[in-house]
Design a protein that fits this description.
single chain; 117 residues; two-stranded antiparallel ribbon; 4 helices
Length: 117
């Protein structure tokens, strides 16, 4: 299992799905064209998918520590925590996919991207 401080940093999510670096939110060039908006939204889906995969791995690792199905005393909390991370990652992926679908199918640009452009 990852060290708690590293796990917390890895699970940090910016509300607009902008890539996070060790020093904070990554600086991105404001979108100028339809292609730029599409590239950003695709990158959000890729980042959210990566985040969801990592959360799923952490959850599976926590569950695999208890082959008998009876967790250690702190096992229940560990399972709750990794489960919450997985749920958050899945919601983030759903949001990213919906934003991309809305852009492709309806031409709808998310408000946060309009403001940055």
């Amino acid at each position: 299992m990852a060290h708690p401080a590293r796990r917390k940093r890895r699970m940090q999510v910016h509300k607009n799905l902008i890539p996070i670096t060790e020093g904070g939110v990554a600086k991105l060039k404001p979108p100028q064209s339809e292609k730029d908006f599409l590239d950003i939204l695709i990158r959000h889906v890729v980042n959210a998918t990566t985040f969801e995969n990592r959360a799923n791995e952490e959850f599976n690792a926590a569950m695999n520590q208890f082959p008998t199905g009876l967790p250690y005393p702190n096992g229940a909390q560990q399972i709750k925590t990794t489960s919450a991370h997985l749920l958050s990652a899945r919601k983030m992926l759903e949001i990213a996919r919906n934003r991309l679908d809305d852009f492709i199918n309806k031409g709808s640009v998310p408000e946060d991207l309009k403001r940055s452009g």
